[in-house]
Design brief:
The chain is of the alpha+beta class. It has a domain of about 70 residues. The protein is about 25% helix and about 15% strand. It has three helices and three strands, in the order ββααβα. A hairpin with an 8-residue loop joins strand 1 and strand 2. The longest helix has 11 residues.
Length: about 100
């Protein structure tokens, strides 16, 4: 991560490929040292009424933070839920995880 895209602060993923303002909140990577201030230390975080995915997107845009989208699935979409390209299980896949562990 240190050497990959040094000007990128947040690596994000999308839940829906055709919805621009909707970043997934179940997975992101960021480089805190590249932030000028703590964007999460904002009273808006506790009072907003948006969907978390839209709030997250807006927060990054509002703070002019350089992002890069990491595709997690072949179709760049969360459905069907499964192990993604980063070899992470989606949190709603508990039955798949159980089956995987029991059949090893």
């Amino acid at each position: 991560m240190k050497n990959l895209d040094n000007d990128i602060v947040f690596f994000v993923s999308k839940c829906f490929k055709n919805i621009k303002n909707h970043y997934s909140t179940d997975f992101f990577i960021f480089k805190p040292k590249l932030l000028n201030n703590n964007i999460f230390n904002d009273k808006e975080l506790l009072t907003h009424e948006l969907k978390p995915e839209i709030f997250f997107y807006n927060l990054l845009i509002k703070n002019n933070i350089n992002t890069k989208i990491l595709p997690r699935f072949d179709n760049n979409h969360w459905y069907p839920r499964r192990i993604d390209k980063l070899e992470l299980w989606h949190e709603h896949d508990l039955n798949n995880i159980k089956t995987f562990l029991l059949t090893r």
